[in-house]
Amino acid sequence: MSVLTLTINDIQCTGREGQTILDIIKENKISLPVLCDLKGLTPVAACRLCLVEVKGIPKLVPACTTKIQEGMVVYTDSEKLRNYRRMIVELLFAEGNHICASCVVNGYCELQNLGYMVGMESVRFDYLWQLFQIDASHPRYVMDQSKCVKCTRCIRVCDEVEGAHVWDLKGRGINVRVISGLDEPWGQVKECTQCGKCVQVCPVGALFEKTATTSEMIKDRSFLERILEGREAKIWVR
Amino acid sequence: MNVEELKDIYQKQNDVLSKYKHRILICGGASCHSLGSVSFKKIVEDVLAKYDLKDSVAVVNVGCLGLCGKGPLVKIEPEGIIYTNVSVENVADIVERHFVKRTPREDGVMRADDPFYRKQFYIVLKDFSNVDPADLNSYIAFGGYTALAKSLLEMSRQDVIEEVKKSGLRGRGGAGFPTGIKWETVSKQPSETKFVVCNGDEGDPGAFMDRSVMESMPHRLLEGMTIAAYAVGASQGFIYVRAEYPLAIERLSKAIRDARRAGLLGTNIMGTNFSFDISIRVGAGAFVCGEETALLASIEGKRGMPRQRPPFPAEKGLWGYPTLINNVETYANIYAIINNGGDWFASIGTQKSKGTKVFALAGKINNTGLVEVPMGVTIREMIYEIGGGIQGGKKFKAVQTGGPSGGCIPEKFIDLPVDYESLREVGSIMGSGGFIVMDENTCMVDVAKFFMEFCADESCGKCIPCRVGTVIMKDILQKITDGRATMRDYQNLKDLAYMVREMSLCGLGQTAPNPVLSSIMYFEEEYLAHINERRCIANVCEVKQFDVVNTYL
């Protein structure tokens, strides 16, 4: 496997062929906000937060799906990108009804962290204040649509790792919703194995355990690492 | 069917045609069809039978005659007279007066040498007024499938690609990627299995070019696709049509059945060892499915959502196999390139934009309809000569090209040539060929709001800039037209527009802010009048006069 060299923010980095820009950024501990990407799941490039500038490419490219090339010159932190990223996080806050003070993941929330990371002080846009549903029909977990950021991690983990495909999307545009089964109450979906993987990968407080109350839901993703190790050692294949 | 049989049908059909002294051609385009032209044929035949003219006058249902705004149309050849606004009630009278009483109707008549027709140059729309869309023999009578015969029997796969490359044809779906290079990329992929896909998911407001080609001459599309499949080495093709085009689906289905029966599709086409078949996939009408990766996902049976490119469909398309995907109009150009050569095609148009482009003229213009012009025609010629000027003699204000992805071009660029580069320079795009003319009574903020509403509604919801950004932009535009906006909102609108354009995943989001940005560039005073003076210059928006106190709430 050939070794490639590239520079990220003027830092010399090396990587193996087939790795993405995001892999190298993580290995070199360079700070870059991401939301939809989670190691172990197929990247979808949907959140657009990891977009970076690459010399020679006129468009911005997503770090999570772009493979590295020899001699690539990447910039992750220009003034323009910082401004755009802050706007995206503000849009997320304007879209859903994110009230941290009463949220189960307050303090452990990836969206909250993103807000700090991109330096968001307030939301400059008008909040949309849409009406959302809460689905508490499942015996162990709750789905709160108002917190959902549509990163589709739950859909991917259920489909790719658990193999149950309980979750999917319906609607389009701003009306897109994550649904369980054929848009039936989660508790009635027979395919659900109650494994809770979707709950653990959810970056925000949209999916949480029933027993949790404010600031009590800490997500545990160690199972993904075990799966990845198993995959690498060829113990586990899907 | 082999070449001898093809020539035989050609000869026989032309012998039949030459027996008739006159031909009555009834427009079968979608708008004329829905206005009742479908029942004209029987009425006209009855009239002809009454006066014993059946042996000298032929009656044919043909494809779109172009002047859709004045339909239904009936054309009489060889006189070249087109009767407009024909109806079930007066069609018998028109034919009687023309052939029997020799006192033809004078009003509502268009002649074939009118600037509307004279200024056009037909490649894609050629013989639309001669060929019966539902009849394969009628297509062969006007030289159909000769290009397929030529490429299969006389040319190698590489020859076909070279010819297309030489022609300089660029994708007619909007982006303008060189077609020959795309074909070459797909043909060089090592895979055994390849696919050819036709993008017939035309969803721009005010655009009906592809629809017309599919409805008026489905065989021309099939021929182009088959040649493409031969060139790239594919054995299966798909035509993706939206369900809103039932007539196109009906005629394409019939054309595919007829072509299969005649051995022009299926195994061993024209006696060679080349095999290719086409099936139709009907889309549910999502605008985003016109984006190629979303379209492929939809064909696979998945949710029609775009994915990040690369890999491009030419490398990894349908089910992971190399896939050639082109627009309807692109395929409809192929027959002419093969028959007349790439050099001939390259001699038409401008330096970088070759050939012709079909436009759907719409809006406040006298002659609305379908036109085909060589690249490089000026906007002035399009509006005042072909289009016949602005309705009611009003003043021209702007033209919107490229649908919701395009921009508004103001009056000062009226002498701008219409080609890919020139349009991009002034902040618009060629797009699929929508051409919406606006007069002085149009509010540009209102227009921008309309297109933003469209994009917000049609966003798939995958990436955040497009899903939320378009909605917030739409809300700000609504505030501006209501007279509730402040300069801060206006600044937010501009910031968002640039962000959505650069950060969105697919073409829909990347181009959604274009109507806003181009109207800000050329008509900023209208935005400022709404915000600062709380009035609409064109008197379209109902701007409310809020109290000073309320505006800051």
Annotation keywords:
heterodimer; A: 238 residues; five-stranded mixed β-sheet; three-stranded antiparallel β-sheet; 10 strands; 16% strand; B: alpha/beta; 23 helices; 14% strand; globular
What report would you give on this structure?
The complex is a heterodimer of chains A (238) and B (553). Chain A is α+β, with helices and mostly antiparallel strands and 238 residues long. Chain A has helices at residues 21-27, 79-95, 110-117, 153-162, 197-201, 222-232, and strands at 3-8, 11-16, 51-54, 61-62, 73-75, 134-135, 141-144, 167-170, 177-180, 207-209. In chain A, the strands form 3 sheets. In chain A, strands 2-1-5-3-4 form a 5-stranded mixed β-sheet, covered by helices on one side. Chain A has a 3-stranded antiparallel β-sheet with strand order 6-7-10. In chain A, strand 8 (167-170) and strand 9 form a beta hairpin. The model of chain A has no long low-confidence stretch (mean pLDDT 93). By secondary structure, chain B is α/β, with parallel strands linked by helices. Helix content of chain B is 44%, strand content 14%.
